[in-house]
């Protein structure tokens, strides 16, 4: 049992209640038989007592075991403490020994340095004396007549040593008096130049072999010579040979610079200056030559500007990519190089830009009008022309002759969104060139001039001209035979589309160039002036168009509406809308569709409402010209229902007007004794009494029932 208790007590986590439960169940299970169903608490009590004794014994054993282990741990602790104490003593002794050794080393090092200084003080003058003796020996050789015979000067493999000696002799010779040593100086100079050329040739040969180690050695030697810049030039010339042969020159230059920058850092002691000269040579010789060849060819103004923009853009892009290389402290070095190349090309940029825009817009407009077989003409507009048009309309209507010569060009609007997009694309390119090619102080002014050209070519020469033609093409209604053919709604639709394109380009391209400058307000005012003039002509045209519609409806109803429609002599007829009403309704429906197709936004609602108001006035006046019996009043109400059906899309105001007119027509139908009640209804109660009396007087029975009618 002890082993069983140990297993249960060592379980993690240990639960005392579960332990007691298991003990109880185990005791019951062991003492219970199959036929014994009674519970024996005495056996359970004995089991618990025995378990307590066992656990007490187990506790005592474990306690003794813990005491033995603790005693062993204390012994180990004392032993380890003593060992650590000994190690600390040994470490302390080692530190003292190390400090003593370090002091001795420093003492010895001081003596060694002192000895070295003494040796240098002795060896330095001796070395200088030896060098001076060697130089005197070589100088003496230069003083002798004939060629130099020393191996150091005749052996090509010793050119580095010869260069060092010749360079020193050259410096010495500069201090010698001229008359006496003129021959010596010339001989040394000749050897100096010869050695310099030999080194440069050797450098070029090493460059061809990609022997960077040898190139560095020669560059170090040549750095003391006057011809060192020639060495750099030779390297640059060899490295950049053929760099203009590639189709995409700019794309080839960046890898070229990256490759040579690594070589320059390996070879030259002053890589920043060498790289700056390398790039200078690319800009002022290679790129400048390439740009000159591109722009000097016979190009028209458009292709010249396009090429200039592309070259300037690519050069700036190249400068940004090359800015990662270290070329000295001047951060604007690459920008200065670019400016030096392009200044002569962009000084007169805006003059050429405006000339190009004018030529291209004029040519595009000319081609468009030629494609329409139209010769652009001067159009006279204003108050006198409008008065003349109105007089011709009045005289023609009364005399029934056509004296107003209206030309509608077969429905051609002379507006083209494709042409507008072409002009806008040209100005878009111009704004982009202005952004890049203009100087910062001229940018806003140049953008303003480009905008002026756009407003003139697109809005005045094209849209305004088309509106003038559209105004003249609006028919003057002189008869009722056929309804007027109206194209002005299409003109408005196309002009609105072009205006929206203009506004978008102004916001996207022009505003960023002029914002926060004095030119901004000027441009806003110019655009506003042009667009307001166009809007005024659009409104004039829409007003004339509505007048034409209303005039035709009026004339058609006067011509086609018969008196018998509203005062039939017999009751044998169908109570339906009159033919004249149906024709007018069909025409108005077509006009509404035309308006909704070509106009948008608030313009549609306002125009449809104005059309409804004018149509209501015409129909109202038209009804006042007739007398109505009971059957005719039914026809009039049918007509009003037809008018209400076709005008229900014209807005709530128009619906209310026709609802009131319908109520007035009911006065023609009701019995005399019910008139008072009908006039008191909501739709008529607010009308002036004279209006009600005017309609009541249209009844055919007005004279016989006059006394009853006057009570209303």
Automatic annotation (TrEMBL):
Gene3D superfamilies per the UniProt record, alphabetical? 1.20.58.1970
GO cellular component terms listed in the entry, alphabetical order: exocyst
Q: Which residues form a coiled coil?
A: 52-79
Q: Where is the signal peptide?
A: none
GO biological process entries: exocytosis; Golgi to plasma membrane transport
State whether keyword Coiled coil applies: yes
Keyword annotations for this protein?
Coiled coil, Exocytosis, Transport
For the Exocyst complex component Sec10 N-terminal domain, which residue ranges apply?
A: 43-152
Q: Where is the Exocyst complex component Sec10-like alpha-helical bundle domain?
A: 161-707
Q: Which Pfam families match?
A: Sec10_HB (PF07393), Sec10_N (PF20667)
Keyword Coiled coil belongs to the record:
yes
What family does this chain come from, according to its entry? Belongs to the SEC10 family.
Q: What is this protein called?
A: Exocyst complex component 5
Q: What is the lineage of its organism?
A: Eukaryota, Metazoa, Ecdysozoa, Arthropoda, Hexapoda
């Amino acid at each position: 049992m002890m082993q069983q208790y140990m297993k249960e007590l060592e379980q993690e986590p240990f639960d005392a209640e579960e332990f007691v439960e298991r003990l109880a169940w185990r005791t019951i299970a062991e003492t219970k038989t199959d036929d014994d169903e009674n519970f024996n608490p005495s056996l359970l009590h004995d089991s618990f007592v025995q378990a307590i004794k066992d656990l007490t014994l187990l506790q005592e054993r474990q306690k003794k075991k813990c005491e033995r282990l603790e005693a062993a741990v204390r012994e180990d602790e004392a032993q380890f403490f003593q060992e650590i104490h000994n190690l600390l003593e040994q470490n302390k002794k080692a530190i003292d020994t190390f400090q003593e050794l370090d002091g001795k080393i420093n003492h010895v090092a001081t003596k060694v340095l002192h000895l070295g200084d003494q040796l240098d003080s002795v060896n330095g003058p001796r070395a200088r004396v030896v060098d001076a003796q060697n130089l005197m020996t070589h100088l003496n050789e230069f003083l002798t007549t004939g060629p130099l015979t020393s191996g150091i000067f005749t052996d090509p493999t010793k050119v580095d040593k010869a260069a060092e000696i010749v360079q020193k002799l050259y410096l010495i010779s500069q201090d010698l008096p001229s008359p006496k040593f003129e021959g010596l100086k010339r001989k040394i100079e000749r050897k100096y130049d010869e050695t310099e050329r030999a080194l440069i040739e050797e450098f070029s040969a090493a460059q061809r072999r990609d022997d960077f180690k040898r190139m560095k050695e020669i560059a170090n030697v040549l750095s003391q010579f006057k011809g060192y810049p020639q060495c750099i030039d030779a390297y640059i010339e060899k490295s950049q040979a053929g760099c203009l042969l590639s189709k995409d020159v700019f794309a080839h230059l960046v890898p070229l610079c990256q490759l040579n920058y690594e070589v320059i850092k390996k070879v030259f002691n002053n890589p920043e200056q060498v790289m700056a000269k390398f790039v200078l040579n690319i800009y002022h010789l290679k790129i400048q030559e390439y740009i000159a060849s591109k722009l000097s060819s016979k190009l028209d103004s458009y292709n010249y500007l396009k090429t200039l923009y592309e070259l300037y853009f690519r050069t700036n892009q190249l400068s940004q990519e090359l800015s990662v290389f270290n070329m000295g402290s001047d951060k604007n070095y690459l920008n200065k190089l670019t400016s030096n190349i392009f200044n002569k090309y962009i000084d007169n940029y805006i003059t050429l830009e405006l000339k190009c825009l004018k030529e291209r817009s004029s040519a595009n407009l000319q081609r468009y009008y030629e494609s329409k077989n139209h010769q652009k003409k001067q159009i006279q507009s204003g108050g006198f022309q409008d008065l003349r048009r109105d007089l011709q309309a009045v005289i023609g209507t009364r005399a029934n002759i056509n004296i107003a010569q209206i030309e509608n060009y077969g429905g051609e609007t002379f507006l083209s969104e494709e042409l507008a997009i072409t002009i806008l694309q040209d100005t878009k390119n111009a704004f982009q060139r202005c952004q890049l090619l203009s100087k910062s102080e001229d940018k806003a002014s140049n953008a303003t001039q480009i905008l002026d050209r756009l407003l003139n070519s697109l809005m005045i020469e094209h849209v305004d001209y088309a509106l003038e033609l559209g105004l003249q093409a609006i028919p003057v209604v002189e008869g009722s035979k056929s309804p007027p053919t109206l194209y002005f709604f299409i003109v408005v639709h196309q002009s609105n589309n072009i205006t929206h394109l203009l506004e978008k380009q102004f916001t996207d391209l022009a505003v960023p160039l002029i914002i926060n400058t004095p030119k901004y307000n000027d441009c806003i005012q110019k655009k506003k002036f042009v667009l307001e003039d166009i809007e005024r002509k659009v409104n004039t045209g829409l007003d004339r168009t509505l007048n034409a519609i209303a005039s035709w409806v009026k004339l058609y109803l006067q011509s086609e509406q018969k008196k018998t429609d509203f005062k039939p002599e017999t009751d044998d007829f169908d109570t339906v809308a009159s033919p004249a009403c149906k024709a007018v309704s069909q025409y108005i429906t077509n006009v509404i569709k035309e308006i909704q197709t070509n106009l948008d936004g608030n313009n549609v609602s306002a125009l449809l409402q104005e059309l409804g108001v004018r149509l209501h006035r015409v129909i109202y006046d038209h009804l006042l010209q007739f007398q109505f019996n009971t059957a005719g009043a039914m026809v009039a109400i049918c007509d009003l229902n037809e008018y209400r059906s076709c005008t229900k899309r014209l807005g709530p105001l128009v619906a209310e007007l026709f609802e009131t007119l319908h109520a007035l027509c009911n006065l023609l139908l009701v019995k005399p004794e019910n008139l008072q009640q009908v006039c008191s209804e909501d739709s008529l109660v607010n009308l002036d009494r004279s209006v009600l009396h005017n309609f009541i007087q249209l009844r055919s029975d007005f004279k016989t029932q006059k006394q009853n009618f006057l009570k209303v």
